[in-house]
Amino acid sequence: MEVTESSVKANHGASVPDTSASREQISQAHWLQSRGIKAEERVQLTRLSHMRYQHPDLDVLSDFMLNFGMTVAKRTESEVWFRGYGVDQYVYYATKGPKKFLGGVFAIDSKEEFEKALKVPGALPVQKLSEDPGGGQMVTIVDPDGFPFNVIFGQETGEDASTPATTKLRANYPHEKQRLREFNRFERGPAAVHKVGHFGYSTERFEELLSFYTSHFNIVPTDLLYMEHDGHRMDVTTFMHLDLGQNHTDHHSFFLGASPIGSHVHHCSFEVFDYDTQHLGHQWLASKGYRSVWGVGRHILGSQIFDYWWDPAGNMVEHYTDGDLVNEDTPIGILPAGHESLAIWGPEVPLAFLQ
Ligand SMILES: [Fe+2]
């Protein structure tokens, strides 16, 4: 095809209001109402606190996590707690044993809400976390697909420890030079992890889990992706946020995708500081011989810059930065599902990511 001035348009990026970010939208209040969900009856989760896994070799895992940008908060013969530089005492917990996913853990602020969580169907007896940094109590709720979902109450908050990676860079744009007689210099190393941002599942029981989580917890879709069968729409993926009312919260803390090949955890994701630290972290992991899944690239839904890796046991873990924030006024985006909605730039999406 011949290239003419009118046929080629320069690329463009902009920060647009959430109310015009997708073509089809419905309000969160309408969605909750249409499903008969009573907002006040749900358990109020405050934030995602940490992830839990079982790993066959804690030494091999620790090598990976240090190179991934975490530090060791505590280590025993059979357990290890890794922390980021945010307020959480730890962002990743591992116990020794055959490879197993033990669930994400959401923090709850009030005793009343924690007691509500104990009554959710599938709740197991309360565990006291007396050996864990910050202590607290935890309850595991087994969801209708058998996934463990945990809530923690009473953990002491840690200190927000900023690191050398948290210096905001000034950028020089064509018409806006912010950095005068200052040169950018970097040090190679892992991308320091701030906090856990989200996790999610591929599930054979998508609709059941969507109902379970949105009716029992303050978890609400930010985006719903559908497939069409005989003119009928079926939701197949959703990115969901914590409903904190007017307070702003991450575009997604939890997600679900319909899976035709069995239910399994898809990935969990950790926040890093910025684009440069993330790229430096990518090169660092690659130089240590770890296996990349997909990245570095920029998601469309959620806007994050992403970078997915395999940990030594074959779990997918992600670094992300620069994600969107939403609140109860953000409309739910309704979109067709498809690979093309995954990234605006980055390497081609590998098959492994889509399963
Ligand atoms: Fe992610």
UniProtKB/TrEMBL annotation:
Q: Name one GO molecular function term.
A: metal ion binding
Q: Which GO terms describe its cellular component?
A: mitochondrion
- Annotated region described as Disordered, given as residue ranges: 1-25
PROSITE patterns, alphabetized: VOC
Keyword vocabulary terms for this entry: Metal-binding
Record-annotated VOC domain positions: 195-322
GO term, biological process aspect, one: L-methylmalonyl-CoA metabolic process
Entry-linked PANTHER family: METHYLMALONYL-COA EPIMERASE, METHYLMALONYL-COA EPIMERASE, MITOCHONDRIAL
> What's the protein here called?
VOC domain-containing protein
